[in-house]
Write a structure and sequence with these properties.
With 184 residues, this protein is α+β, with helices and mostly antiparallel strands. It contains 5 helices and 8 strands.
Length: 184
């Protein structure tokens, strides 16, 4: 499939930070040859997401996800023909926040900061499934330009400490800690 070799190379080069992440990376790598990871109809499929940072203020931009009833990073599904998780993460970030100056954070460029498989509950005729989410850090120099895609999908800037105090999902808490390490 288109993109499988690029995904395999990304996974081979990625350095997991703990055994849980290493397990998710191994599971995703093993699925490349047996599952259409690019199709939203697959029970396990790849998504791209980003945590948007404003390093001078050490704040992160969170988006309200109505489906998950939680404040989270921005991101989403691959469109037909897309095979680069960073392209997907940046496109989704721009669509969901209105920010057009987003660039990769730090010297690692297009290297993901986290890879995690997360469960997605069934809803509106869609069965429960899993996202193999490939996560990046993006920065903006114009945080005041952020605006929600819709009224229901509010966005807000918060410090990492404030985000950590209210977010319960451990994989997102780990993403926030990794972002905080990089801006320190």
């Amino acid at each position: 499939m288109a993109g499988d070799e690029g995904l395999r190379a990304l996974l081979d080069a990625y350095e997991a930070r703990d055994e849980r992440e290493a397990s998710d990376v191994r599971r995703l790598a093993a699925a490349i040859d047996s599952v259409d990871l690019w199709s939203r109809s697959s029970p396990l499929h790849v998504t791209g997401s980003a945590l948007i940072l404003h390093p001078p203020t050490r704040r992160v931009l969170l988006r309200w996800h109505t489906r998950m009833h939680a404040w989270m990073q921005v991101g989403g599904h691959f469109d037909p023909g897309e095979t680069d998780p960073l392209v997907v993460a940046r496109r989704e970030a721009e669509e969901e926040t209105g920010l057009t100056d987003l660039v990769e954070f730090g010297p690692t460029g297009n290297t993901p900061v986290q890879i995690v498989i997360v469960p997605v509950p069934a809803r509106h005729g869609e069965p429960a499934h899993e996202h193999a989410d490939i996560r990046f850090l993006l920065v903006t120099e114009r945080p005041d330009d952020a605006c929600p895609e819709t009224r229901e999908a509010a966005v807000r800037w918060v410090t990492v400490a404030d985000a950590l105090s209210e977010i319960e999902e451990e994989n997102l808490r780990e993403l926030l800690r990794r972002a905080d390490e990089r801006v320190a």
